[in-house]
Design brief:
The longest helix is centred in the N-terminal third of the chain and has 20 residues. The protein has 6 helices and 7 strands, in the order ααββββαααβαββ. A 5-stranded mixed β-sheet has the order 4-3-2-5-6. Helix 4 packs parallel to helix 6. The termini are far apart.
């Protein structure tokens, strides 16, 4: 029996080389597309319903509140110390609305009525009917209260220095134009820390 130097074994590498196979990894494109589709739907579901980020004009200082509820997508009326806008479209000068005796702001009422009619025509299109049918199928078995459509909701971003009478004129005008739900945008304050006493 021959003696070999330690650490090196005779024919130890040759057996492995002969049994080695070429391995080819085949990726199934269909499975990858399915995986990315599921991932995309998951991310859209989780991050699409986290609330709406609304643009705040520099000249508007919103009031602050401890208790708030999440804003839903809607049309936005901005009441700054200078002007009144709806969805970034100029409506009227703040000073003129403040000084007027009439409770209805005609330009605002016209804009809101136009937005409602556009929303109703969009809802009557085929795509909206399909979405409604899918939503009805999902909520099958659950009796939910009829939701207010997005075009019948208004979020008011009013400067904290705006007087209540002017704010009331705006609210009256949009409700007369057909708005069913009015929300106010506020800045959320941190919850006060309760110290046990």
């Amino acid at each position: 029996m021959p003696i070999y130097t330690p650490g090196k074994r005779h024919r130890s590498g040759s057996a492995k080389k002969s049994t080695k196979r070429n391995v080819v990894a085949v990726l199934s494109l269909t499975a990858m597309v399915d995986m990315f589709t599921v991932l995309t739907v998951f991310l859209l579901q989780n991050y699409a319903t986290t609330g709406e980020v609304i643009a705040l004009p520099k000249e508007v200082k919103l009031p602050e509140a401890h208790t708030v509820k999440e804003l839903k997508p809607s049309n936005v009326v901005v009441i700054s110390p200078d002007k009144i806008m709806i969805n970034n479209d100029y409506v009227a000068e703040f000073r003129n609305v403040k000084e007027q005796q009439d409770w209805i702001v005609p330009a605002l009422k016209m804009q809101v009525e136009r937005l409602i009619s556009e929303g109703q025509s969009e809802e009557s299109r085929l795509g909206s009917k399909v979405r409604k049918a899918i939503a009805d199928a999902k909520s099958e078995g659950q009796q939910e209260e009829e939701a207010i459509p997005q075009y019948r909701k208004i979020t008011i971003q009013a400067d904290k220095q705006v007087d209540f009478l002017t704010l009331k004129k705006i609210m009256y005008t949009v409700s007369e134009a057909g708005i069913a739900e009015i929300n106010f945008a506020v800045i959320k304050l941190p919850d006060p820390i309760n110290t046990g006493s």
